Amino acid sequence: MDETTPIETTGDWEWKHPHTDELDELRAQINAHEGTRRARLLSDLARTFDAWARFSRTFHSLLLACETDEDTILELMRNVGDRTKQDSLVTALDQAIIAYGAGAGAVVDQSRNVLKLQSAELREAEAAHRNSVIGPIPGAVFLTKLRNYVLHYVAAPWEFTGEIQDDRQTAKVLLASDALKRFDWNVATREFIESQGDGVQLSNLLQPFLIAMTDHTNWILEQCYNENAQLTADVNGLVAKSNLLLTGGASDGRDWEARMAHVAENLKRKERGESQLDYQTGKPISEAT
């Protein structure tokens, strides 16, 4: 068999955009811009809060099931026989409280990361808003410190108590106060724990705290977006320049939603056997030229 000659490539794979250098410079400016940094921090805070809020709702649902579902209550109160289901429930509670505590701490930490870049006036306003919205919530001082306990001390000290009222069995899922008080809490948190008697019932605390945290976090995001509006506009201007170069001047990207809606409409027109429309002129493409 004769040796074959390799096919010569055209070199198209080495093609580069005619404005590559300008695009690289714009990209570097965008990445280094203070507006980009602050926007990323705000996005991180919003994402982290959303994840924690989901943890909170899931944890609350689990606690309610443990306190109101009679089959679940029977398993939690069992002290003889097969305790496999009880062990699984305790594991689920452990998973939920660890995720909840870590998430709450992450929201607090990321809020601080955002706020330390803002003006002194906004930071003062944030403190006042936090004190007015979160401060009055029962157990807020405990829930914000819970992360330190479940991540750095011991496993949550669960206790389960049950009673029968009007032929219906109910229960309480508690964190035992005596065990909690062995931890080095601050004065306010220790006072709250002592006020709860034998144990802290989390199911009564989670929803009010979530509502208050939602209010306050949304306030932080809105105020920071407003204060950083000029920085955001400056970054968007750089992005617009980059998009114009990428599209040969066709679009700066600000009409992206409209263009995508136009594409979707053209697909529907094609399915109906109708002429597709030009985005700029609104006329059938066959007539646009």
What is the secondary structure topology, with strand pairs?
Blueprint: H1 20-32, H2 34-68, H3 70-77, H4 84-115, H5 120-133, H6 140-143, H7 146-152, E1 158-165, E2 168-176, H8 177-180, H9 187-195, E3 199-201, H10 206-227, H11 229-246, H12 256-271, H13 285-288
Antiparallel strand pairs: 1-2, 2-3
Overall outline? elongated
Oligomer: single chain
What is the typical, i.e. mean, pLDDT?
83
Number of helices: 13
The helix fraction, in percent, is 55-70%
Structural class: mainly alpha
Number of strands: 3
Using only C-alpha atoms, the radius of gyration works out to 29 Å
Summarize this structure as a short list of keywords or feature phrases.
289 residues; mainly alpha; three-stranded antiparallel beta sheet; 3 strands; 64% helix; 7% strand; disordered N terminus
Describe the structure in your own words:
This protein is 64% helix and 7% strand. By secondary structure, the protein is mainly alpha-helical. It folds into two domains: 29-231; 255-289, no CATH class. It has a three-stranded antiparallel β-sheet. It is elongated. The chain starts with 19 loop residues before the first helix and ends with a helix.
